[in-house]
Amino acid sequence: MMRVLVTSSRNTFALDIIRKLGSLGHTVVASDTFPGATGSHSKYLAGHAVTASPRYDTDRFIADVNRIVAEYDIDLIIPTFEEVFYLSARVADLPEGVTLFGGSFSTLARLHDKASFQRLVKRAGVPIPETIVATDHDSLVAATEKYPRYFARAAFSRGGVGLLTNTGPLAGKMSVDDCHPTEEQPWLVQPFVDGPMVCTYSTIVDGRVTSHCTYRAPEQWAHSTGITFLAVDSTDTLDYTQRIVDALDTGFTGQLSFDFVDNDGELYSIECNPRPTNGVILLEAEQLEQALTGRNDEAFVVEPGVERQISLAVLADAFAEPLKHLPTSLHDLLHVRDVGSGWHDSFAMMWSPATLVHGAKLSHGQRKELLGALGDDIVWNGEPIAGMSAADAAALEDVHEQRI
Asked: Sorted alphabetically, which Gene3D superfamilies does this protein's record hold (predicted)?
């Protein structure tokens, strides 16, 4: 049996991982930077702890993680958000005998930086839209003027937050003057690709995909983060994921999530989140368990048609835009299985408002969307990390030089 620490337990998919591993008899401990994190109150936990912010107090965060590892004799750390960058940059400072399921810092940085990621994907032979990297205001304006319909975002961004476009439901939500690209923090500009977003989640062990899910989000909160998840065919995305992993040439072990746009059956790669996303919710508990260890000879692939929803979010979205979403939301509430169904772990979800309050506190006095604020203390935006090795610092510089 494994003894697992799941970090950033505020995330719905972190709670899902906790439930699945805990229900199979593994010892699971949760941590986050505040005590009200949803996943920290699951009945499937052996314990939970509060850590310092990895972003704002990295040294103390690492010390806190070491304390938890020692107290609970942890042998596997599963990050669920961008704390993975801080843990991987400081992996040499983690206790001997504990495994980080997250990959090397240099590899994660190549995947997370959207500019260097585009170059990697192109080398892997995976379709991508034409891409311009803007490093100042003038080049950003010029790039947006090149395409009649465009889509732009920062090289370090996530969760559908901070998107610049003149097309679709997010058109005009952000202006060019709100964006501030630099050499260190560039923006990517692409022609707007028509079609629905297709997302994936994969576990990889020693360079081999061990589980894979491809899904769409029929219902979204504020046109950004998904609140219902429907598995679709994985034939192309599984092939593309393995190609990208092979192009890394590192024997990667960890979790990867990709976003594609389905343009009349042609999938275009958009970005990578080198961490879990809601796709993990669609895996069965035994599949996730075996995939993390690599014991399965062939990848577990979620069958098309499997569907889950975050019922509370669906209900909230329905009343936020009742004329648009209420009919679909009512159907989903009646017919789609909730992510918490069958777990008999409702006390954990009662703490969901605490997570929103945490995000509101982080955004207090700042012009920041709630979705962005929810992860503000655990994100990584390409800066050097306190205590990182000289080799990783050099690798970060190399990533900047690999931008297209």
From this structure: 3.40.50.20, ATP-grasp fold, B domain (3.30.470.20)
